[in-house]
Write a structure and sequence with these properties.
Length: 489
């Protein structure tokens, strides 16, 4: 109760332009450094509050994401142009070729839609707002309407993710700007439904942080209806419960998640409820940018045997099991209990490293939890540069493999493989940096502010069985605006 009362009082917040090395160098462009006697967080702005600025940034980014698809809106989503213009979208592919444009709802008789359960529900509801074709020919204008309605829905989800991240960040709300402005999110937000599962995973953690455990489980259950990867959020909660002994909240969240899952299975059956988003390929491209796909391309060049699909799946399961085991050991044996977003990021990072059917938009799963775990704008810029290059290489390679495009416009496989392994290396490095902050929490930007785990709900300030007691909320705190100790890279 004392902790909750303290949250109602104004608190000084961290100013990125004072603490981050890159932003300190760029602040002159944005009007100069923050005044020495400024007190962000203690004095509420009249109009431009942090959340309103974040909403404006997200809205601007969503408009850019919409503009990325303008070439296809004007010329149509046709092959191979949609690949070369990098404006492909699962939405329009499902509408044109999986029955939605002809009035067939997903999972109904005659429909070929085979995506995750709630993805089909959302696509079906949106399709009801668009005139259906009566002669089997899907008109371009209805495809554009279907796309535009989804774009509005995704923009709303994007704003929700940003606001949820800012509220989970406690005294570091500006960290949510990473989610608001990430270039890879601008490029992939309108490629599919990935952002909806991201929004539900962030909302579930926010509910958990506010001690609404049943609601957290309900949100996780709906999130799993879009993508089963959100179960890793519950797994992270369970690991911290094992470290602290506080199981009640996790059991409530897990029980309500299971109940929602059961209610979804009843009308549709387990086959649809267990559909995996990485297996949904409405364009039937059958092209991946995973570790295993990169190996196969290298094997083809070197003349050695490629991996069979079943072998790649088994290797992915084994690799994830090994990485998961290492994460479990880190969580249970670290000198101080990790924060919940850190554990979620590591588990999801392990998944995107080994996922057999990886596509560029799956990196969106990591964004909000990276913002809550490790914020260094220099590293963020490098990561985004690599992700954007990987995104471009992926679609150029798809254009070559899935169409008869001009040879001079195609990308050769070595460049695509380099982009794939570049993404893997940078993602692995980010996981290493988060693990380093767990092992040496004095470098953790959140715990340096003498707060424990603002997103942790019952784990926040909980006694740690194997490490030192968490710093109390009422103890003296350092100035949140002074530069952090140098984090060894």
């Amino acid at each position: 109760m004392e902790h909750e009362e303290s949250l109602r009082h104004p608190a000084s917040i961290s100013a990125p332009s004072r603490r981050d090395a890159l932003l300190r160098q760029l602040r002159e462009v944005a009007g100069g450094p923050l005044g020495r006697h400024a007190a962000p967080g203690l004095i509420r702005p009249a109009v431009f509050t942090i959340e309103r600025v974040l909403i404006l940034l997200t809205t601007a980014a969503a408009l850019l994401a919409f503009l990325v698809k303008v070439p296809c809106r004007e010329e149509g989503w046709v092959r191979p142009a949609q690949f070369y213009r990098t404006c492909y979208s699962d939405w329009t592919e499902a509408f044109q070729f999986q029955g939605l444009g002809s009035g067939l709802l997903p999972f109904a008789e005659g429909s070929t839609f085979d995506g995750p359960l709630l993805t089909g529900v959302v696509a079906g509801l949106v399709s009801l707002l668009v005139p259906a074709s009566s002669d089997g020919i899907v008109r371009t204008e209805t495809v554009v309407q279907f796309f535009d309605l989804h774009a509005v829905l995704i923009a709303a989800a994007w704003i929700g993710v940003v606001l949820g991240t800012a509220r989970l960040a406690s005294r570091r709300p500006w960290d949510a700007a990473i989610v608001a402005t990430a270039p890879i999110l601008i490029l992939t937000a309108t490629s599919g439904w990935a952002l909806l599962s991201v929004g539900l995973s962030v909302a579930s953690v926010l509910a958990f942080a506010r001690h609404r455990y049943v609601m957290a489980g309900v949100l996780l259950g709906f999130g799993a209806g879009f993508s089963i990867h959100v179960v890793l959020v519950l797994a992270a909660m369970a690991l911290l419960a094992a470290r602290t002994g506080r199981w009640r909240a996790v059991l409530l969240a897990g029980g309500s998640m299971g109940a929602i899952w059961f209610l979804m299975v009843l009308p549709f059956g387990p086959g649809q409820a267990l559909a995996l988003p990485w297996q949904y390929d409405p364009a039937r491209l059958n092209i991946s940018s995973s570790l295993w796909a990169g190996y196969d391309l290298l094997a083809e060049r070197l003349g050695v045997p490629a991996l069979a699909s079943e072998t790649a799946t088994l290797l992915a399961v084994g690799a994830f099991s090994v990485l998961g085991g290492l994460i479990v050991l880190l969580v249970l044996k670290a000198p101080r209990r990790p924060r919940l977003p850190q554990v979620v990021f590591l588990l999801m990072g392990a998944l995107v490293l080994v996922l057999p059917n990886y596509r560029p938009e799956f990196t969106l799963w990591l964004l909000p939890f990276l913002a809550l775990s490790y914020v260094d704008w220099r590293i963020f810029v490098v990561w985004q540069l690599v992700e954007v290059l990987h995104w471009w290489a992926f679609w150029m390679y798809v254009a070559r493999e899935a169409s008869s495009g001009a040879v001079e416009n195609n990308i050769d496989s070595p460049y695509f493989v380099a982009a794939v392994f570049g993404r893997l290396l940078v993602t692995g490095y980010l996981m290493y940096r988060v693990a380093h902050h767990i092992v040496e929490p004095e470098y953790d930007p959140v715990r340096r502010l003498q707060i424990d785990d603002p997103a942790g709900g019952p784990f926040n300030t909980a006694p740690d069985r194997t490490g030192p007691p968490p710093v109390g909320w009422n103890e003296s705190r350092p100035d949140p605006h002074t530069p952090a100790p140098k984090d060894p890279q």
